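ok trying again, last paste got cut off:
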Amino acid sequence: MRKKSEKIYIAPWEKAFDKVLTPLEHFIHRQTTSAILLMVCAVAALYLANSRWSETYHHLVELPFVIGFENLILSMSLHHWINDGLMAIFFFVVGLELKREILVGELADPKQALLPIIAAVGGMAVPALIYFGINPSGHTADGWGIPMATDIAFALGTLALLGSRIPKSLLTFLVALAIVDDLGAVIVIALFYTESLDWNALAAVFVLLGALASLNLGGIRQPLPYVLVGALLWGAMLKSGVHATLAGVFLAFSIPMRPKYNPEQFLAHVNTTLTQIREAFNREHNVIKNEEMRTKIEALGEGVHLVQAPAQVLENKMHLPSAYLVIPIFSLANAGIPIEWESFGTSITHPVALGVMAGLILGKLIGVTGFTWVAVKMGLCQLPPELNFKHILGAGLMAGIGFTMSIFIAELGFAHHPEDLLMAKTGILLASLIAGVTGYIWLYLSCSKPSET
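nice, full thing came through this time. structure:
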């Protein structure tokens, strides 16, 4: 209800809903929430895979799912649709984050970017070498890419639990490291986890990539043309043999990063439009009857949209569905591994599981911390003022949380070896748990909470 003296209309239920929805919105946007949801889904998948519903769970995941028309049919299991189709959305968001970081983010300044790049290279090379040292030959050697990846949602979510105990620059360092890590994983998947190539389909891929580049160079800003061409690109890549999810990265890099309005033009546009809105309001105070005023307000809203880069808008819009829908579904479909407690000791000493665990826990720690130490001692770069090597050591431990991308690479590397895939997933889950807990404890004990003034 609105009193005469009030200028803002508040409906009877509005305050009550705001009290509920506002904290909920803040909770949803917190990094810890994404990590918690991912953890809940992983635990749920493990429970289902080891309960009386295990047969139903595995049957549901492998159900055939058909999309298409009479002469154009795509038939895959639900598991493959999630890993090949739904995960393309995740890779699209990863691509948008990569593009932003490279153009205007932490990786845009070469001096500032050098430290996390060196740390990420160490965090990819050492785990791969450790895994390869344990599995030097045979088909098990194909899993060398599994311990290279860091799960940014889990790692940042765990760091966020420490609150003000850690400096913000540590979060920034880990974000930049994980972004470079994701880029490395994308390159590894593209170059080393492609079984065979269909050259006709690959030719179609290059034609569609040219079409996306033409849309960008031609100044097309609406998302629909990119989405349509991107869907065709996904289909062509699926047929080509190159993993289809990489279409999401290529699509992301084609989305324009330049706003239509620069800040000066936008401010001039806002001032002009506000003057016109004020004049229209003076002529007619009833907004519902004032068509001219409504038109100017719509024009102002359009200007607000155009001052933002299309890639930035899409990244903001796609973050929530990627973090709160795609990744949890992926976790539910892929984290369900049967655990035989009688043979658990044998499982974790299996060469694949051992290689993955050693790579993620020791390899990430040695690679991130060691390469950073060498780079600083050689004078190639400097630690940010707030950071010391206790923080870097904690980041190296946290980087060993390799859940999402590690499982994804394991699915590619051991697609035809289910027993080794099971061992790899066992190693990933156990290593991620150990890395997250030890990283949290180390940072909690070594970083004192700032005193309140």
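cool. The CA atoms of residues 201 and 240 lie 5 Å apart. The domain at 45-191+319-425+439-446 is CATH 1.20.1530.10 (Na+/H+ antiporter like fold).
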